[in-house]
Automatic annotation (TrEMBL):
PANTHER family (UniProt xref): GLUCOSE-METHANOL-CHOLINE GMC OXIDOREDUCTASE, GLUCOSE-METHANOL-CHOLINE OXIDOREDUCTASE N-TERMINAL DOMAIN-CONTAINING PROTEIN
Keyword Signal: yes
Active site, UniProt feature: H545, H588
Coiled-coil ranges (or none): none
Keywords: FAD, Flavoprotein, Oxidoreductase, Signal
Listed name of the protein: Glucose-methanol-choline oxidoreductase N-terminal domain-containing protein
């Protein structure tokens, strides 16, 4: 039985229930994957589980539960990370938002819900990880969800297409389609069709090329966000064997001084609570689940990582793993914004962004009926190979990557690039993504609050550049240095240029052409290729999809965890979050994180 909203406020643990206590499993991080693990491992009443989360409870908060009430930049629920100045992007410093509090980024994201191509999931297994592939992923993806199917009328009217065979019917997470799609979104989709991107009616089945209206992690019955905290934790919060401590900043994993066959044994987790140091003991395992930006920091503070990073800070090296904090991969994004023609036909979300009084009115309407501007679908999604956008550019790109692979001396990176090249040569595997949003998305030029807008975000989801995240301090309060090395490989810039050129074709193509009054951003001053390069570097956005920083790879290829997610050189320390993905995939990440954590839970239980 699900705990009542009133009870939930009191179901997180006190420091007295955690400090100096011993649990079977201690999970460092109550984000998306961490709460999935906590729920699944505590299904056995004889197993005790402790979760440490630096942020707050945040359950039952309208700012989180109501879709489109974006909290990016709110320090209470957003870590507010930033990159170091980007050497290959004119020293731009980019914000990298991440969820802080129970549920992690599943409480902060845009609720978009999609699965990667089967090629990308199979590639993880091909990199030396038996048991990780599309078929296994689909099994656990279905286990995680209750997918609320549209009615036939909704599917036809709003293009809400999906295949019921690829969905779960009894999982904790609720997902489905929003109440409606706007006319301008559907006309945008028709324009994509006219530019060669066809309708895709089974995008959750491993084939992504095409365009569709994206499902969302929103409970259709309540209109509220469904996320790790209210889907996995809240219904199980009253379990006596599950304790969750909020406001607990993980410092490091502690280890026994006795080694077992040269491997170290984790004994617990040291953390900061109310400014004071504490420790909790682990009888069986410690599981680090801080996300791709926090997990490498926790490992390095624990003395697990590259000695060249750890020793200058005075840290003892318990396990020498140079791969910790490397292989960072991100989905890069750039936004174009278009002002729409004067017409009452265009229903957008701009009004609730620009008009506080109307926003309050629409919020009340949504709370009472589930209708109104807050019910509008996030928008239309499209995935495409570069060949569809520009066949000649695709030929040049393939030749360039082939030459780069021949020159690359790092065998691990060469192997990854070879798989990325294979994907690019496969016309059924996409290289880039477009998101159409019926509202102004912040970019170069400010909006006229009396106008309406349609924005298109272009994403390059298969970058060749690899970045790092490393600590520069032994203080767990200090953020690690995030350096994605954006555009270190010029092929990534060339891809973004092709993406931008395609987006700027939209207002030249019907029916989008009849919708648009003018291009707001990049704007008329952005003409030459050099202008576009400058714009891309200055206004580059993260998609908040970082992966790879604790990669599941063979140890001699800079791996951090094995195919059972156990950290090399340890007997009982695992990492479970997006950081273990060794080669990024072509999709938004939350559906994959839920499935990954479900599979990890069965690995830990010994089921598989």
């Amino acid at each position: 039985m699900e705990a009542s909203p009133q009870a939930i406020l009191y179901l997180t643990a006190s420091i007295e229930a955690i400090a100096a206590q011993e649990f079977d499993y201690v999970i460092a991080g109550g984000e998306t994957a961490g709460l999935v693990l906590a729920a699944r491992l505590s299904e056995d009443p004889s197993v005790t589980v402790c979760v440490l989360e630096a942020g707050g409870n945040n359950l039952n908060e309208p700012e989180i539960l109501i879709p489109h009430r974006m909290n990016l930049g709110n320090p209470r629920v957003d870590w507010g990370f930033k990159t170091v100045p980007q050497l290959y992007a004119d020293n731009t410093v980019a914000p990298w938002s991440r969820g802080k509090g129970l549920g992690g980024s599943s409480a902060l994201n845009m609720c978009l819900y999609q699965r990667p191509p089967s090629f990308d999931l199979d590639a993880i297994g091909r990199l030396g990880n038996p048991g990780w592939n599309w078929d296994r992923f689909l099994e656990y993806a279905k286990k995680s969800e209750t997918f609320q199917l549209p009615t036939p009328e909704e599917a036809e009217k709003y293009h809400f297409y999906t295949n019921p065979e690829h969905h779960g019917t009894s999982g904790p997470l609720r997902a489905g389609f929003r109440s409606s799609s706007t006319e301008c979104s559907l006309l945008f989709q028709k324009t994509l069709n006219n530019l060669g991107i066809e309708m895709q009616k089974d995008h959750m089945g491993g084939k992504l090329c095409g365009t569709w209206v994206d499902p969302a992690t929103i409970d259709k019955e309540t209109g509220s966000r469904s996320y790790a905290a209210n889907a996995y934790y809240a219904p199980n919060a009253s379990r006596e064997n599950l304790k969750v401590l909020i406001g607990a900043l993980v410092h490091k994993v502690t280890f026994s001084s006795i080694r077992l066959n040269e491997d170290v044994q984790a004994t617990g987790v040291a953390f900061i609570y109310d400014g004071k140091p504490f420790e909790v003991k682990a009888r069986k395992e410690v599981i680090v689940s801080g996300g791709a930006l926090k997990s490498p920091q926790i490992l390095e503070l624990s003395g697990v990582g590259d000695p060249e990073i750890l020793k200058p800070l005075g840290l003892d090296v318990h396990v020498e793993l140079p791969g910790v904090g490397t292989n960072l991969q991100e989905h890069n994004a750039i936004v174009t914004a278009f002002e729409l023609t004067e017409s009452d036909r265009w229903v957008t979300r701009d009004a609730v962004q620009f008009n506080p009084d109307l926003a309050a009115e629409q919020l009340a309407l949504y709370r009472s009926t589930g209708e109104g501007l807050y019910s509008i679908s996030r928008g239309v999604i499209a995935f495409s190979p570069l060949k569809t956008l520009n066949p000649k550019a695709a030929e040049h790109m393939i030749a360039s990557i082939e030459a780069k692979i021949r020159e690359q001396k790092d065998p691990a990176l060469r192997e990854q690039w070879a798989l990325q090249l294979e994907a690019m040569k496969d016309n059924d595997v996409p290289d880039c993504e477009f998101i159409g949003s019926p509202n102004y998305v912040p970019t170069a030029h400010p909006p006229n609050i009396k106008k309406k807008y349609f924005s298109v975000s272009g994403l390059h989801n298969r970058a060749l550049s690899r970045g790092t995240i490393h600590i520069t301090s032994t203080n767990p309060v200090d953020h690690a240095d995030i350096d994605p090395r954006s555009f270190e490989q010029d092929e990534d810039m060339v891809m973004m240029l092709e993406i931008m050129k395609f987006m700027r074709k939209l207002p030249e193509t019907e029916p989008f052409k009849s919708m648009v009054a003018k291009e707001l951003s990049p704007g008329p001053e952005c003409v030459t290729e050099q202008d576009m390069r400058t714009y891309i570097k200055k206004y580059l956005k993260s998609s908040w999809h970082t992966a790879g920083t604790c990669s599941m790879l063979p140890r001699d290829k800079n791996g951090v965890v094995d195919n059972r997610l156990k950290v090399y050189g340890t007997t009982n320390l695992r990492v479970v979050d997006l950081s273990v993905i060794p080669l990024h995939f072509m999709a938004h990440t939350q559906a994959t994180v839920y499935a990954l954590a479900e599979q990890a839970a069965d690995i830990i239980k010994g089921v598989i």
